[in-house]
Amino acid sequence: MQPTKQQMQLLDKVSTAIHEAGHLTVALALNIECEASARLVPNDHTKNWMEERYWTGTTRALFMTSVVAVAGAVADYWRDDPGVEAWQIDDYLDEALDELSPSDVAQFPSPGKRPRAVARALALLRNHKRFFEWAVVELVVCEEINEDDAAEQFLISLEVG
């Protein structure tokens, strides 16, 4: 049975939230002040809603590092395979560059330095899984996480451990 339009929109919203939560988690773990939000962008001109994106996301940080830039794609892959190794994600990135956000890819390190950035992002996501999971839910439900809430929840997640 084919999913409904509403189901596809929800799946896309969750996928976008995972991606942005990856950026946000790694930015906070690296002690970079940031704010994350996901928002609906209507696409009234689509002919095939099964293939269209309904949600786009943004993460704003005071400055973007290569580790933060790859963290969204790392989170995308990690959510599907929690036991994934960094080299597998790096191989995936070679094939998926066309599907990724141009603003993310513009900040990616050179291919020779990318494995280190991917490994660091994956380690930070695993170390801060509790915050990451909170951020995904918060983005899906509220569609935005402001700077203050992100910082507060990140500190709480460190205390709870």
Explain what this protein looks like in three dimensions:
This protein has 7 helices and 3 strands. The chain is mainly alpha-helical and 161 residues long. It has a single domain (5-160), classed as Methane Monooxygenase Hydroxylase, Chain G, domain 1 (Up-down Bundle), CATH 1.20.58. A 3-stranded antiparallel β-sheet has the order 2-1-3. Helix 1 (5-29) crosses helix 6 (129-142). The longest helix has 25 residues, at 5-29. The radius of gyration is 15 Å and the shape is globular. It starts with a helix and ends with a helix. The model has no long low-confidence stretch (mean pLDDT 88).
How would you summarize what this structure contains?
By secondary structure, the chain is mostly helical. The protein has helices spanning 5-29, 66-80, 86-96, 102-107, 114-127, 129-142, 147-160, and strands at residues 34-40, 55-61, 144-145. The chain has one domain (5-160): Methane Monooxygenase Hydroxylase, Chain G, domain 1, CATH 1.20.58.
Brief descriptors of the model:
three-stranded antiparallel sheet; mainly alpha; 161 residues; single chain; globular; Methane Monooxygenase Hydroxylase, Chain G, domain 1; 3 strands
Number of domains: 1
Low-confidence stretches: none
The largest beta-sheet arranges its strands as 2-1-3
Radius of gyration, CA atoms, in whole angstroms: 15 Å
Mean pLDDT rating: 88
Provide the structure class: mainly alpha
Q: In terms of topology, how is this protein built?
A:
Elements: H1 5-29, E1 34-40, E2 55-61, H2 66-80, H3 86-96, H4 102-107, H5 114-127, H6 129-142, E3 144-145, H7 147-160
Antiparallel strand pairs: 1-2, 1-3
Helix pairs in contact: 1-2, 1-6, 2-3, 2-5, 3-5, 6-7
